[in-house]
Amino acid sequence: MLNSSINDREDQYQKLINFTKEIDQEIIKITSALNWTIESIKLDDDNKLVCPYDSSHQISKKNLHQHLERCQWKQEGYNEFDVPLPESSLSLNSYSSIKLDSQTQNKILWEAKEKDPTMKIANYECSTWHKRYISFFISFYIYIYSHYI
């Protein structure tokens, strides 16, 4: 009984060694097909940074900015199909538009909430039309219209 257990373990160990060798050969084939070397891949690890939004992400320094934008977007609950709000192309002095920064928007919302405690306010800043539309209720528009227009 003891011998069969040892033999089973040796068989499993040998299978694991063979599997590891096969995988190593496969990696060598793939890297050579890409004109890379194993050494160049190992050297590139020095240029990897850990994403502050998801510690399981390792990013190269040259892709850091692009990755952080996408990863932060995902952390805020958005996906690749969400479209960010555009920046206004009108000047700040334009009479045909109202431009509110987030601080002013929050102030307006909290003033409206004080007058109407049933009003619901999202506790995050919206970055897409869809979420903004859902977050700002008719009370917000009525309040802005009555105070600023």
TrEMBL record:
Keywords per UniProt: Metal-binding, Ribonucleoprotein, Zinc, Zinc-finger
Molecular-function GO terms, alphabetical: zinc ion binding
InterPro entries: TRM13/UPF0224_CHHC_Znf_dom (IPR022776), Znf_C2H2_sf (IPR036236)
Residue ranges occupied by any CHHC U11-48K-type domain in the UniProt entry: 48-75
Short name of any one Pfam family annotated for the protein: zf-U11-48K
GO CC terms: ribonucleoprotein complex
The protein's name in its UniProt record: U11/U12 small nuclear ribonucleoprotein
Organism: Apis cerana
Taxon lineage: Eukaryota, Metazoa, Ecdysozoa, Arthropoda, Hexapoda
